[in-house]
Amino acid sequence: MLRLEGKTAVVTGGGTLGIGRATAARLVAEGAHVFITGRRADLLADAVAAIGEGVTAVPGDIAQPGGLDAVYDAVRARGKGLDVLFANAGTAGFATLDQTADEHYDQIFDVNVKGTIRTVRDALPLLNDGASVILNASTAADNATPAFGAYAASKAAIRSFARTWANELTGRGIRVNAISAGPIDTTGVDELVGEDNAAAFKAGKGAAIAIGRMGRPDEVAAAVAFLASADSSFIIGSNLYVDGGENQI
Fold first, then answer.
1. I need a surface site. Which of 26, 55, 59, 108 has the fewest CB within 10 A?
2. Of 170, 104, 183, which is closest to residue 131 (Cα–Cα)?
């Protein structure tokens, strides 16, 4: 028996080559039907082609009011409720304190904080009793990396949400947990630091952590699948570090 046989899942930010797409593929492999959403229809189509049967793409933008209505309408039409929600979509950018314009703050917090609230809040009527909600936090919340203040603060908020919402939803048996990934080799990193700087950046990041390399998206996906399944039935409100020892050693 697959761990998520017959379950329905939603993964936000599931189109780009990174944690979201890798997680969608892993949840499908575990037996779930997965709805992926994101802003770019072309990337969502690529993800469906790569993953194959068991995944449905519905464009949506967590930064916009009602931006997830279409994907949740599709879940509702399937008629089986929602068993797994991975609130993965997010954005990042560098700015030191003196460089932090209101626009930078608004972009980060509208997506990472307000968008995560919308993602989980709007899913509440669909979540089955006993469902699993996983929030994508980050080791950045702990690391005090210069010029990463707004992003780090947004991810600290995500960690706090996991605790509070876990407490609020225990009456329905819904488990809320967070994952905090360390440096993961994704296309998002290339976009953040620039393709010309990506190789040196990744080499430096990998060398700085205990395991000696950056992580792979599928390694984070495995952790999400664990938290989505009954194997983690006694885990609630936690923050699972998937960081190669970055914040542990």
1. 59
2. 170
Q: Which domains does the chain have, with CATH numbers?
A: 8-240 (3.40.50.720)
174-191 pLDDT per residue, tens:
999 999 999 999 988 888
C-alpha angle 214/14/234, rounded to 5°?
75
Contact between 85 and 123 (Cβ < 8 Å): yes
Based on the residue annotation, tell me whether 151 is a catalytic residue of this protein.
yes
Q: Which of 72, 105, 151, 241 is catalytic?
A: 151
239 Cβ neighbours under 8 A, 6+ residues apart: 137, 159, 162, 177, 178, 179, 180
pLDDT in tens, 154-175: 999 999 999 999 999 999 999 9
